[in-house]
Write a structure and sequence with these properties.
With 267 residues, the protein is mainly β. It folds into 2 domains: 151 residues, Immunoglobulins (Immunoglobulin-like, Sandwich); 96 residues, Immunoglobulins (Immunoglobulin-like, Sandwich). It contains no helices and 21 strands.
């Protein structure tokens, strides 16, 4: 799976914001004219709680032919450099497979199973795929089939920015290894990082993301590569939005202990 920093949203006139790509673009060769993605998804995230165990996901067919789509639910966890998805029955999609008429909508109900209190926020991902119709193809061109990913957060709704432990570190203990920005989240709420910029002591700056960079999930740490850092830099100032709130922090560059880079953080 690719990282959630690849999430992005596009706006279609007259409709709600739609989620565009998180996990992958799947390509299959076909012939004929260029093909545009017909499936659209809204909203771009879902929030559930003990008091609100269900939410609605809308799938829209922007094309001129019927399409079939599948919704799968995964528990979402993290290690330092990767996101991990595992099939779960704690959240269900009903119905999991739908057929959508041209320019039509289908609603999929996303439901938390059980009513046990939530000890802390739980994190999930919905993967929504268009199911190929098996239509015959002509002789030129490439068909791009989109996979959408929608984050689902189950817990107490709280958009405050959780305090993050931010550091700059090498990807591994070897000299000259790539520099990484690490965000350790020791709270029970997820942290969404966006518009992240590093300002160096010599006045230079590095833009890591103009939009969404990614998430640090509850009780997890995540890191992202930094390119263009000054060779002699020992510190930087991080400017970012965390859950929509501006955050500024001065961080130092630390060298990891040998062997520590392979140990995933606990959740």
């Amino acid at each position: 799976m690719r990282d959630p920093q690849f999430d992005r949203a596009a706006r279609r006139p007259g409709r709600r914001t739609v989620a565009r790509v998180f996990a992958a673009l799947t390509c299959c060769t076909i012939t004929g004219a260029a093909w545009a993605a017909a499936l659209q998804v809204s909203p771009i995230r879902l929030d559930l709680s003990a008091d609100k165990p269900a939410a609605a996901l809308t799938l829209h067919n922007d094309g001129s032919a019927p399409l079939n789509a599948q919704v799968r639910v995964f528990a979402w966890t993290q290690s330092l450099d990767e996101d991990h998805l595992k099939r779960t029955q704690a959240i269900v999609a009903s119905p999991p497979i739908v057929r959508i008429a041209p320019n039509g909508d289908q609603t999929v109900r996303i439901l938390r199973v059980g009513n046990a209190p939530l000890a802390r926020e739980e994190t999930y991902r919905l993967l929504i795929d268009e199911i190929p119709n098996g239509q015959s193809a002509s002789a030129t061109g490439v068909r791009m089939q989109l996979r959408y990913s929608v984050p689902v957060f189950a817990g107490v709704a709280d958009e405050r920015a959780p305090p993050l432990a931010l550091t700059l570190e090498r990807k591994d203990a070897q000299a000259g290894a790539p520099l990484m920005l690490r965000a350790a989240n020791n709270t029970d709420l997820h942290a969404q990082l966006s518009r992240v910029r590093l300002e160096w002591p010599d006045g230079q700056s590095t833009q890591l993301s103009a939009g969404l960079l990614g998430y640090a999930l509850p009780r997890a740490a995540r890191r992202w590569p930094v390119s263009g850092a000054p060779a002699n830099a020992t510190s930087a100032t991080v400017h970012a939005l965390v859950n929509g709130e501006p955050v500024t922090a001065r961080v130092i560059i630390v060298e990891p202990a040998r062997g520590s880079e392979s140990a995933p953080p606990g959740r």
